[in-house]
Amino acid sequence: MHKIIALASAFLLTSTAMTMAADLIEQSAVPPVEFETPAFTWTGAYVGISGGAGWLDGSTTKARRFHDEQDFDGSVFGAFAGYNWQFGNGIVVGVEGDIEYNSNDEKFFGYRTFGTDWAGSARGRIGYAFDRLMVFGTAGWTMANGHIQYGGIDKSETFSGWTAGAGVDYAVTDKIFVRGEYRYSDFGTKEIVRGMNVDFDQSVVKLGLAVKF
């Protein structure tokens, strides 16, 4: 009889201890922590480099009677910098400036060589972000240095006008993005030498690589 009572008591104590241990384990178990990956944003400053091809159409009028038109093909290479603000609805607005080597040379009237050395712009941008892909339009002010050479004379003038275009930015990582862009620029008209007015505009296709801060 005493053995039966002892066995029953031991069983009861063991069951109670196991129940208490299970309760302690359940209470001490820490639920797993879930980390949310922050959504990508285009907001911030950036700097980059770009290069591509340019197609310039130029015309000149001499002494208000003689007229000549030429097509210029060349290359562009330079740097750009800007800042974007992204809103909750996916709209992105920003400002951007660039400066680039812009090489185009051709002859007017068979002996006067006209070309460009550099070009730059200051523009506004507006786009729409599909997460890491952003399509954008851009427009603003532009300028370029045009030069003319003939008979030992080498003279240059700074032309200014307007520019507009569109492109795509794609963020490869949170800090690096690539770009494809087309832009049209009308640099206006100037009397680069006495009695000779030069007018030119240019289409440019560029690829770029930038770092976002």
TrEMBL record:
Source organism, top-level taxon: Bacteria
Keyword Transmembrane: no
Keyword annotations: Cell outer membrane, Membrane, Signal
Subcellular location: Cell outer membrane
Pfam families documented for this protein: OMP_b-brl
Location of the Outer membrane protein beta-barrel domain: 11-213
Signal sequence extent: 1-21
Signal listed as a keyword: yes
Similarity comment: family membership: Belongs to the Omp25/RopB family.
Protein's name in the database: Outer membrane immunogenic protein
Source species taxonomy: Bacteria, Pseudomonadati, Pseudomonadota, Alphaproteobacteria, Hyphomicrobiales
